[in-house]
Design a protein that fits this description.
The protein has about 375 residues and is mainly α. It has helices spanning about 5-15, 20-30, 30-40, 45-55, 60-65, 85-105, 125-140, 150-155, 195-215, 225-240, 245-255, 260-270, 275-285, 290-300, 320-325, 335-340, 345-355; strands spanning about 1-5, 45, 160-165, 175-180, 180-185. The N and C termini lie close together (about 10 Å). Belongs to the short-chain fatty acyl-CoA assimilation regulator (ScfR) family. One of its GO terms (molecular function) is DNA binding.
Length: about 375
């Protein structure tokens, strides 16, 4: 008997798992040309092959036959993939679309979106500064203090925050809109520390700048456009994390001298990298270009470019895990209950809710290079015999 497979679904699952047609063909012990015909919809498959495909892609055969939903989404604001491999970007776009599809299918209760609309001039720094204060207020952040948790602030604004398994080329994060929902992704820590908390926090604030200021913009098509929107998102992130009046007031309370010792003390309070504070102080006119260069040289001389003093803890999103637990209240394992209901494998859900370093995760659950190998057929999977 022949099993029905949706070619678009097959492509999306394979792309989300960062598996090439060659890799998948090898797992199935078949030819690339045959797999290509299957994926293009020009070759039917029997039940046995459908089960093997489902096993390799960690889903049920029902999922493989389910047509893709009609999702309206933006591409990440990355310039023609110059700073990130296209294959990796495509992987995370596909994975994000899957996450949002199954969030909807499981009827997870989202936090209503409260992101203010930016109606200023994105090339006007004052407009960006004022807007960042407006976003802070909407997120419930004290106007004169540091942001306790950038991830929670984004979630309170109605954003869905998901982890990245690794850096995305030169980027630590990406963002996009899916059916009107703002989705932010940021790198989880790597083995041995990896992405420090201050960089993770700045990345999330930067991506928040993109989804608020560039919501209707396409990805930049030129290097100049890319530079401009990155500068705007950086300015937003600086203003969101270090509101000018409050930050400068704190500096004055510590004596007013801009030294590395003072900045290290401020880092412990504000959770922002010392180099980022130098940029912010220059933006605010508190130091000039010569003083900024001097501070950068001192930072380099002390070996702080890669390893700054003062550890800022990493953050983690909580909404999706809590939403699953509420949805399957009474089940001992909400992830297993989600798998049972929707037919998508556990490895996907683990990759969306876990913020632990990859090396510390159970290899049977998330060995992601685990996206790059086959998973187990989820509990409750069934073929179409």
């Amino acid at each position: 008997m022949h099993a029905y497979l949706d070619s678009g679904r097959l492509n999306r699952l394979r792309t989300a798992r960062a598996t090439t047609q060659s890799d998948l063909a090898a797992q199935l012990n078949t030819s690339v040309s045959l797999l290509n015909r299957i994926e293009s919809g020009h070759q039917q498959v029997d039940d046995e092959t459908a089960v093997r495909l489902a096993h390799a892609l960690d889903c049920s055969t029902d999922v493989l036959g389910r047509p893709l939903p009609d999702q309206l989404y933006t591409r990440p604001w990355l310039r023609a993939y110059a700073d990130a491999p296209k294959k990796t970007v495509d992987e995370y776009v596909a994975d994000t679309l899957l996450a949002m599809e199954f969030i909807g299918q499981l009827h997870l209760r989202r936090i209503p979106e409260r992101l203010p609309l930016f109606d200023g001039d994105p090339n006007n720094d004052d407009d960006i500064e004022e807007f960042a204060l407006e976003v802070r207020e909407e997120a419930g952040v004290d106007p004169v203090k540091w942001v306790p948790n950038v991830t929670r602030a984004a979630e309170r604004l109605g954003c869905v925050v998901l982890p990245l398994d690794s850096e995305l080329g030169k980027h630590l994060g990406m963002s996009m809109h899916v059916d009107g929902v703002s989705v932010l992704r940021a790198s989880r820590p790597a083995p041995g520390g990896g992405v420090p908390g201050d960089r993770q926090r700045f990345t999330l604030a930067h991506e928040l700048g993109h989804v608020t200021m560039h919501a209707t913009w396409p990805p930049p098509g030129t290097a100049e456009q890319a530079k401009a929107i990155e500068k705007q998102a950086h300015r937003f992130a600086g203003a969101f994390l270090l509101p000018g009046d409050a930050f400068l007031s704190d500096l004055e309370a510590l004596g007013g001298r801009v030294t590395l010792t003072t900045l290290a003390n401020l880092k412990g309070r504000w959770g922002v990298a010392i180099k980022a504070m130098v940029v912010r102080l220059q933006n605010l006119g508190r130091i000039d270009a010569d003083q900024a260069r001097s501070l950068y040289k001192q930072i380099s001389a002390r070996g702080w470019n890669k390893n700054e003093p003062v550890t800022v803890g990493n953050e983690r999103a909580v909404w999706m895990k809590q939403a699953l637990e509420r949805r399957f209240l009474g089940d001992a394992d909400a992830l297993s209950a989600a798998v049972q209901q929707c037919g998508l494998g556990r490895s996907y859900f683990e990759s969306w809710v876990s913020w632990e370093p990859l090396s510390s995760l159970d290899a049977d659950v998330l060995d992601l290079s685990a996206r790059r190998r086959s998973g187990a057929l989820p509990k409750g999977s069934r073929d179409r015999r």
